[in-house]
């Protein structure tokens, strides 16, 4: 009922582990794959070793997580063993998505060159991390620079599909998505965390050592869901819906908005690494309970139906006068 194809790659179900969550080493990725994720994404890889920010880097709050991990990475030269161990994923038949970043636009190509030689199933471009000291630069706010990054990586990646990961902080995520698709991106991910902060009033200081960070989890769902809804139909490539998916109903909202895959990150904190299997069985329950035999029957369906009209509030006869 949930089998799917994404960028031509077959998957048992439409869930994927989001980047940076449990994806920091191969053992964790393999565990998540065994526990039911349809695809898994590695922690973003940068060009050189980088240590990330001081603790605390991740805080749980009432509506999700706030993080400023700061893109720690062993750098491309220190990942040989990691990729070697990940060969086990092949036996499980779970696609591997490598995520890459650069601090300058032309560093993405440098990292892509190494990563492509390891033949992941897809490469995701983290052009949207809010937790860097690069003068608050999020490439994904600028359609022009994103197009340059995508075109450069596409030249290097050969036939490996490339995913561009948007930021909800862009004024027009749709323009960024279109620029990426026009430059050759094979898929769009909507989207990364939202730049945010929290203050501990007793300590009278920001809760994160880096002061600000990226907000994820349930509070992010309505924001990123709207981006998926708006991007759908504006680009001819598939969309990964990501942000606040905690249960099957959340995932179905994204599918009805037009997402072909559902990225899950913070919910691993809330529901454990078995969350992928749980979300899938909740989706199946809803689909069969509502007379559907396959997921694609509800794909993008929210675009076809008119929003509810509340009697008494719409179409009220004019009071005249
Ligand atoms: C602790 C943490 C680390 C993250 N690291 C990365 C990362 O390295 N690369 C990336 O593209 N996104 C990263 N993200 C963003 C997630 O991949 C995901 O896009 C975001 O959290 C929204 O999904 P969620 O609400 O299901 O968590 C990170 C998120 C968290 C919470």
Automatic annotation (TrEMBL):
Name the positions where FMN binds.
19, 43-44, 165, 217, 243-244, 265-266
Q: Where in or outside the cell?
A: Cytoplasm
Q: Which residues form the Dihydroorotate dehydrogenase catalytic domain?
A: 1-286
User: Cofactor(s) for this protein?
Assistant: FMN
Q: What is its main location?
A: cytoplasm
Say which enzyme class the record assigns: oxidoreductase
What is the annotated role of this protein in its UniProt record? Catalyzes the conversion of dihydroorotate to orotate.
**Name of the protein described by the UniProt record:** Dihydroorotate dehydrogenase
């Amino acid at each position: 009922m949930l089998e799917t194809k994404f960028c031509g790659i077959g998957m048992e179900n439409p869930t994927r582990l989001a980047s940076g969550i449990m994806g920091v080493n191969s053992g964790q990725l393999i565990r998540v794959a065994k526990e039911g994720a349809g695809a898994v994404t590695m922690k973003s890889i940068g060009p050189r070793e980088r240590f990330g920010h001081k603790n605390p880097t991740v805080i749980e709050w009432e509506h999700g997580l706030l993080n400023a991990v700061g893109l720690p990475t062993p750098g491309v030269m220190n990942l040989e063993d990691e990729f070697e161990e990940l060969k086990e994923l092949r036996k499980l038949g779970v696609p591997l998505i490598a995520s890459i970043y650069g601090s300058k636009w032309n560093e993405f190509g440098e990292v892509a060159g190494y990563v492509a030689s390891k033949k992941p199933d897809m490469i995701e471009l983290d052009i949207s991390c809010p937790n860097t000291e690069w003068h608050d630069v999020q490439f994904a706010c600028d359609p022009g620079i994103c197009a340059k990054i995508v075109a450069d990586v596409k030249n290097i990646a050969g036939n490996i599909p490339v995913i561009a990961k948007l930021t909800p902080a862009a004024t027009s995520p749709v323009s960024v998505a279109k620029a990426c698709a026009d430059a050759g991106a094979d898929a769009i991910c909507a989207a990364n965390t939202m730049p945010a902060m929290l203050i501990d009033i007793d300590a009278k200081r920001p809760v994160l050592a880096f002061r600000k960070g990226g907000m994820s989890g349930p509070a992010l769902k309505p924001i990123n869901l709207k981006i998926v809804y708006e991007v759908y139909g504006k680009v001819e490539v598939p969309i990964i819906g990501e942000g606040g998916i905690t249960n099957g109903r959340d995932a179905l909202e994204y599918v009805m908005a037009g997402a072909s895959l559902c990225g899950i990150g913070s919910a691993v904190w809330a529901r454990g690494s078995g969350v992928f299997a749980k979300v899938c069985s909740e989706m199946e329950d809803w689909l069969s309970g509502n007379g559907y035999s396959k997921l694609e029957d509800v794909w993008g369906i929210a675009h076809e139906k008119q929003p509810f009209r509340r009697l008494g509030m719409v179409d009220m006869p004019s009071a005249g006068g």
